[in-house]
């Protein structure tokens, strides 16, 4: 400005001239003046911020909800289940697990429970009208009656195998197997090789071991009797105390196939779920990036609105300077307006994002999780944008010369 | 605000004030002017002669290029922008030709804004705004927005905003310029009333009738004061005041007052003579 800045020059015996401070309430009121006069524009420019914040809150909320759902699932299913599969030896020869494998595993100290399934060579068809080659991708396995206890699941419909029916030609279908065979209710019959077998139950999805979804399970004795099953298990399931899982894992292969331990494959099914909980990160980051871009664009919109607001309100600025507003007061007024504008957008966005999270989580059957830090982060981003977008217009407004502003048309 | 007769302490003192704009425009050339508390003066002159420029300089909205400006006793040249703002908020009121009211806000809010920067709490601002509106006879239009007011009413709201802070000085730049004759008369009546209540007022006007009705006229041409019906008066009043300081207070004051009455009479005759001249000028233009 043309006049050199002087701080509190002496006023020669007269009372000192000191500009009064505006109360917080007056500052808010000043900030709202411009917003009230131009509602449509306020809504549109706040919308940009709202979309950005909503995206970010929803992305964080959804990824957290899905993660917490997976973790809850893990919690429910437990992480102490280990499986051992028969593999191939160095020569590519199939190595069978011994019939006594389950008993051997149960003898390992920390092991609480062990059970098994075995591959049965029986082709499955819906009925004898269907040619034997068309098996619908469903295979047969023999299962011990305590399998479901080890897996921590139940039949969705009908009953499970028990001591009474494990020798009879009855089967329990995995959820996908039932679907492929077109069976929705227990009670019907399917063909295994040339035997008619009664479906007595249908499993729900087996979350820990999804391969079991595609099989038809029969009792060990029944498999041996009707389908020439040799009684060798092909997969052992074992649960132990949580703390001992790694110890058990170390000795499991050696226990079930001494001498050929390299061939037996030991795995921990819960690892797959845990990995899934971690894998969403990439997508979440991408979506967060998109939200940040939307927020940036929203910020530019607010800055644009503020610049226009200052241009349109030069007369008001001139008048305020005439009635005693300091440059500071003008700057504060427009900065507050910009902050309010983006705060309106931010609050709307947070509500929209939370609502979207609740809606989607409800549809997925998850419990909605909206981490407080995402809301706090959204608020901080909003305020930051409000300041950044408002700073330049506010400084411009404060630098307007009072007489020029008053005469502006 | 203390009620004071013309001739007491000066509210405005311009000494050899010049204002030049870029492009070699000399809006003011060595203007000296003293306005004492309680005066009501008209500033007249052709368009572009520097009237508004001087009012802006007096109102501390625009600094002079050279010269000293004193308002309410403060030497304006030595003050920071914040101090000038404080000076305006407490000592100077403005009235503009085009009102400058906020469209979305009612009369009370508009008037209360006149106190916003003077540190008056909100409740008191509103109470005083109501009183000011009643003073300009708009007690029945308190919650009307500018769009719901006539031009004359709008200007009265603007005047209420200018006077709500009880300033030492009210500056009005063509307050009747946008009004019809009847509304203009009401506004001028109001300014007379306020002046009678003690407010010092400077009015820029193009209306000769209005100018003639005011106690003192300052005539501008090409950035210079070419006639000032109150200059001699003011000078003599100052001399009388200085003389009075030496002598007995009471006697001196009485003498001064008598003299003033006499001079006021003379001033009026001078005004009437000027009015005739002005009329001639208008015809010749
Ligand atoms: N900001 C400015 N920049 C340059 N020149 C200016 C500026 N403001 C005023 N002027 C010039 O200064 C001169 C005086 O202007 P001013 O506004 O004081 O006139 P005025 O007497 O008020 O006229 P009117 O009666 O038409 O309002 C004019 O020649 C004008 O063009
Ligand atoms: Mg003018």
UniProtKB/TrEMBL annotation, chain A:
Q: What Pfam families does the database record attribute to this sequence?
A: FtsX (PF02687), MacB_PCD (PF12704)
Under Gene Ontology molecular function, one entry of this record is: transmembrane transporter activity
- The segments labelled Disordered in the record are 1-20
Q: Where are the transmembrane segments?
A: 42-62, 286-311, 339-361, 373-392
Which Gene Ontology cellular component terms are annotated? plasma membrane
Specify the MacB-like periplasmic core domain's residue ranges.
Answer: 43-249
Main subcellular localisation: membrane
Q: Which UniProt keywords apply?
A: Cell membrane, Membrane, Transmembrane, Transmembrane helix
Residues annotated as coiled-coil are: none
Please tell me whether the keyword Methyltransferase is annotated for this protein. Answer: no
The cellular location(s) given in this protein's UniProt record come to:
Cell membrane
Which InterPro entries does this chain map to? ABC3_permease_C, MacB_PCD, Macrolide_Exporter_MacB
Domain of life (superkingdom) = Bacteria
Domain ABC3 transporter permease C-terminal intervals:
290-402
Report how it sits in the membrane: Multi-pass membrane protein
Family membership, please give it.
Answer: Belongs to the ABC-4 integral membrane protein family.
* UniProt xrefs under PANTHER family: ABC TRANSPORTER PERMEASE YTRF (PTHR30572:SF4), MEMBRANE COMPONENT OF TRANSPORTER-RELATED (PTHR30572)
| Protein name, as recorded | Putative ABC transport system permease protein
Query: Taxonomy-wise, where does this protein's organism fall, top ranks first?
Result: Bacteria, Bacillati, Actinomycetota, Actinomycetes, Kitasatosporales
TrEMBL record, chain B:
What PROSITE patterns does UniProt report for this protein, alphabetically? ABC_TRANSPORTER_1 (PS00211), ABC_TRANSPORTER_2 (PS50893)
Q: Which Pfam families match?
A: ABC_tran (PF00005)
* Alphabetical keyword list: ATP-binding, Nucleotide-binding, Transport
Q: What domain of life?
A: Bacteria
| Presence of keyword Flavoprotein | no
Q: Where is this region: Disordered?
A: 229-285
The record's Gene Ontology cellular component field reads: membrane protein complex; plasma membrane
Keyword Zinc-finger among UniProt keywords: no
* Compositionally skewed regions (Low complexity) per UniProt: 245-285
Q: The ABC transporter domain covers which part of the protein? A: 12-248
* Basic and acidic residues bias spans: 229-244
In its UniProt record, a GO molecular function of this protein is: ATP hydrolysis activity
Name by which UniProt lists this protein: Putative ABC transport system ATP-binding protein
Show the taxonomic lineage.
Answer: Bacteria, Bacillati, Actinomycetota, Actinomycetes, Kitasatosporales
